[in-house]
Amino acid sequence: MVVFAGQGDARRSMALLWRTTRSKETRPGPKPGLSVDLIVDTAVAIADEEGMAALSMRAVGERLGRTAMALYTYVPSKSELVDLMYDRALAELSTHHNLEAGWRAAVTSWAGEAWEFYVRHPWVLQVSQARPVLGPNEYVMIEEATRILRETGLGAGVLRHVVGTLFCFVRGAAQTVAESRQAPVVTGVSDEEWWYARSALLAEVAPDFRERFPTLTWLDDEGAYRSQDETVPYLEQEGRDTFTTGLAILLDGIEATVGRTGA
Amino acid sequence: MVVFAGQGDARRSMALLWRTTRSKETRPGPKPGLSVDLIVDTAVAIADEEGMAALSMRAVGERLGRTAMALYTYVPSKSELVDLMYDRALAELSTHHNLEAGWRAAVTSWAGEAWEFYVRHPWVLQVSQARPVLGPNEYVMIEEATRILRETGLGAGVLRHVVGTLFCFVRGAAQTVAESRQAPVVTGVSDEEWWYARSALLAEVAPDFRERFPTLTWLDDEGAYRSQDETVPYLEQEGRDTFTTGLAILLDGIEATVGRTGA
DNA sequence: CCAAGTTAGTTTATGCCGTAAGGAGTGGCA
DNA sequence: TGCCACTCCTTACGGCATAAACTAACTTGG
Predict the structure, then answer these.
(1) Which pLDDT belongs to residue A262?
(2) Burial of B156 (0-12, 13-18, 19+ CB in 10 A)
(3) Which of A47, A105, A191, B144 could form a disulfide with A233 if both were Cys (CB 3.0 to 4.6 A apart)?
């Protein structure tokens, strides 16, 4: 019998994601002290607090008072655990955005929520997008975005690409901020300290910066890099503004496309 | 004397990136058998061929006929090596896009080149963006994008966010394809095989899919998911189309903003 | 009620990883 | 010649995911 690589595991993994494993009422052997849900929640907590790099089977086990190996009774491997974490986290997103004020308002609200979600769970952005996890909540998220954007009246082909573009942008915009939040936790150095030290070194190492990078120098001279609000970390403010501006531009672009197609 | 965490290392790292280390003509000790350039090139080759996960100090050393520890004479740590790889790879990008045909054509050409670059070097997308590496070639890339988009006449503040948005989109759009290229190499399963197996499992595990996800079902019924060109892997074609469509939308949005600001 | 079989969890071990520490050989310069 | 900076090696440590074998708890068939 020929079995595709990983196909047997794929069945188990899908069953875990969609929770289709019907457990008999009573089973022989000792009572389970843990559960998939408990393990996934613990893993999410670690990733939220200490970053994806700190997520190890040992770390999860330790928080639950077990060894790393104990987890393998519930979860086939670490990568399956990450998939489960991903889909569990996505459950936070709300699913019924109001379309009464028009699609533009709804998209803005959806994108804002998604952006905040990614920033709250930076590790989510490290889960590969190419071959989707295909869990129920991922489908809910895509369904919701598509449902809203369908209101534009665009055809199915273009619509799919528009949804993809929106995802790319929101994820990318969130990534910058997510990483800037994670960095101080990992390195113990704040944005300001880091930037201060680095810009001094930059001047040292590239004394001809102004001549080599005239446009960036112009941007700097125009005061574009001056922070407005001192209470918010520099890179975070920057990322938030880029998201707001970029989203507006994207929506303008979609409107233009809608107008052109004549919906 | 108080030293900020990592600051001493930061100086050495910047010196390496900007190649400001003046090496004396003759030095005591055995002739170096390797060089930073050689090591970085080898590391890039490994990452290109086998993915970032396969990049280890041992692997790089082995390709060069040395042990892993030999590399530490040239490079302070693996993370510094990754920074050097990143900046080296960026050197591939061309720097003088023609502005004669207008900024829209130039942006299209720049973005297309960047997209292909990311797809060619998928691992580049795994290098953190939050705290930039600040190498010379990264500055060249940002300078070039900013130089082109400055032609729109937008003010410095908005311009910075527009550049950021463009980067988010291009990186995000490339990531999907980059990962879909990497996946078969790592897992040994093609897109088609993978998708075929998974969609069968999906039907098994979620028999009520059509009712739960009406919009996605509509998209499917409209034939939006049917592949046009059988010679190109499915996910790759999908990603390429999303990039093209999304870029056009983004440019429309920028034009709208430019028109509104009255440039 | 007991033996068989199933399950939860442990210990132990394998083979990766980054890199610290220390030692061996190399070659320019005093 | 001896010193010393330098390259490169061996060894070692603590971390990682996880395979394999084991113990102990529990249900169930006889």
Answers:
(1) 65
(2) middle
(3) A191
Q: Give per-residue pLDDT as tens, B154-172.
A: 999 999 999 999 999 999 9
Distance CA B200, CA B205 (A): 9
Distance (Å, whole) CA A118 – CA A116: 5
* CA gap B80, B69 in Å, rounded: 15
Residue with tokens 């790889």: B85
Residue A139 sits in a domain whose CATH number is: 1.10.357.10
- B237 falls in which pLDDT band (50, 70, 90)? confident
Structure tokens at B229: 């060109």
Distance from CA of A25 to the nearest CA of B (A): 21
CA–CA distance, A160 with A154 (Å, rounded to integer): 9
Last residue of a domain, one of B38, B65, B90: B90
A113-148: burial string, b at 16+ Cβ within 10 Å, e else: bbbebbbebbbbbbbbbbbbbbbbbbbbbbbbbbbb
Residue A70 (CA) to nucleotide C3 (C1'), in angstroms, measures 28
Is B149 contained in some domain? yes
> Does a structural domain hold residue A229?
yes
How far, in Å, CA of B229 to CA of B60, rounded? 38
B73 touches strand D (CB under 7 A): yes
Six token digits for residue B252: 């429309």
A203 is a domain residue: no
Q: How buried is A12 (Cβ within 10 angstroms: 0-12 exposed, 13-18 middle, 19+ buried)?
A: middle
Nearest CB to B139; choose among A14, A213, A222: A213
For residue B218, the 8-state DSSP code is: H
Q: Which nucleotide is nearest to B57 (CA to C1')?
A: C18
The answer to whether the CB of B139 falls within 8 A of the CB of A217 is no
Instruction: Determine if strand C comes within 7 Å of the CB of B57.
Output: yes
Stated pTM of the model: 0.91
Mutation target vs B (from A159, A245, A254; most B CBs, 10 A cutoff)? A245
The CATH number of the domain holding residue B51 is: 1.10.10.60
Structure tokens at B21: 């280390």
Q: Domain tally for chain B?
A: 2
In this complex, the answer to whether residue A72 has its CB under 7 A from any atom of chain D, a nucleic strand, is yes
Q: Which of A74, A118, A121, A114 is nearest to A93 (CA)?
A: A114
Residue B4: which pLDDT band, with cuts at 50, 70 and 90?
A: very low
Could you tell me if A4 and B197 are in contact, meaning their C-beta atoms sit under 8 angstroms apart?
yes
End residue of a domain, out of B90, B118, B142: B90
B250 contact partners, CB below 8 Å, separation of at least 6: A165, A249, A250, A253, B165, B166, B169
Instruction: Measure Cα distances from B54 to A146, B49, B61, B123, B183 in Å.
Output: 37, 9, 13, 11, 13
Residue with tokens 């030999």: B70
Does some domain include residue A123?
yes
